[in-house]
Amino acid sequence: MKKTCTKRCPYSYILHLIALLICGAFVTHAYGQTMATLPAAKARSDSAYQFTPLCEVTYTISSQWHNGFNAHVSIVNHGDRISGWELEWVFDGDQSITNMWDAMPLQNGAHISARDAGYNAVIDHGRSVSFGFQASYSGDNTVPTTFWLNGNQCNQPGEPTPTVVPTPTIAGFACAVDYVIRSEWNNGFVADVIIRNDGPQITGWRLNWVFTGDQQIINAWNAVVSQNGTNVSMADAGYNTTIASGESVTVGFQASYSSMNPIPSQFVLNDVLCQGNGGSMPTPTSMPTGTPLPTATPLPCPPVAIDGDFLDWVCQPFVSDPPDDCGIKRLDLLTFAFVTNPDNPTAYFMAESSADNGTLYLILRVDTNNNGVYDDPADRIVRVEYKTRPRASQVTVTLFDGTDTYLETIGENEDWGASKNEGGRQVEWAVTFAQLGIPAGQPIRLILASHPGGGNAPVCDITDEVQWSPATALGFAIICILLILAAVDMARRRRLQ
Fold this sequence. Notes:
mainly beta, 4 domains, 10% helix, Immunoglobulin-like, 40% strand, seven-stranded antiparallel sheet
């Protein structure tokens, strides 16, 4: 006769609960947040929402012409930390948004929803985020007065209300942008963007434009760049935040494309229209109401492969290094990136220099026990020699321990870098966890340096120290499966007792 479950059964339920919590956390981490469906546009009332004065919204028309305008929207969070936001408002006129940067828009008639762009999803208490958009209109361009952030009404009585600044006329530009393609090959190019300030001094800047082709930015220097579909946002890098009146700053980037590579004709600096490559002003095109705006999904993050193709490094974590801090251009580091692929115990690295003028020598020091000392026997030194050729590259990667004792050659004369025809400034390599002597998830420290070659050659450029915990997602999936199986087995055993 089978025994009925008595006191010990709650353990199986507890184990079930632990399994579900861990697996739920893993799924949320691996697949991101679920986007809520936007309700149809409707009038709002105090009875429908529990209003709390937790947010402040400033809606500013930064430039306007006969049938269109640019607007800047700033959100200040006065409440608890927000992870994932959606701002809604209702236009009083026939305004129709044609494109948006730093947010994902949806328009249903007069009802507007702007969701975070992913990289700006978090708003801490007392901090703010902003986004901009371009729109067309044919009647009045009335400023909205009521906004809802994640269902809470902002700008309650007694708080700041949306304001409008005087709109500059299209005849006089306060800024000018020169977009210059420096080099181009069959599926990529390098461009400089020169921003000249013709107005008062600027402290803190963001430049936006829209590609009219399928260009995808791979990396950039002298600016922090994000791309959402064809919308590009380029912000100052911190050390070049100020542009005095009459002065200019220059930034650059590398991008890929597969069809045509037209030069953008319209640039917006801090939501003010600039004169750019002729200063042409395209006429905004109205979007049909009730349909989502054609903003592409955020850039994918595909697995990285060591193949000399650097498109897979888009949106991977990286460290920027200030330009021109090394007297030799080919040794002047700009970017150091690092990543792991799911279910693969390998660390992948990528470095980029300012120019191709010969051989680039790199030293990657890895503090494997994370104690701030890089010359322990357990630590690792990875030496990279990167030679460019017209149509290929020759990359040799050698591994040493922390005392500089040779361990093994990871690759010799491999084509793991960009060729001269491709710009000759990027190289990638990989080191397995076993070669580093670390388990998955082990915190480590990294420093990348460049030097001109030779046994005792001095370091020319060095990146900031990075702390990183390279890991794969494999362990979480196995833990979930084992916990669920264990819980099921325990429940079965209890029923048989």
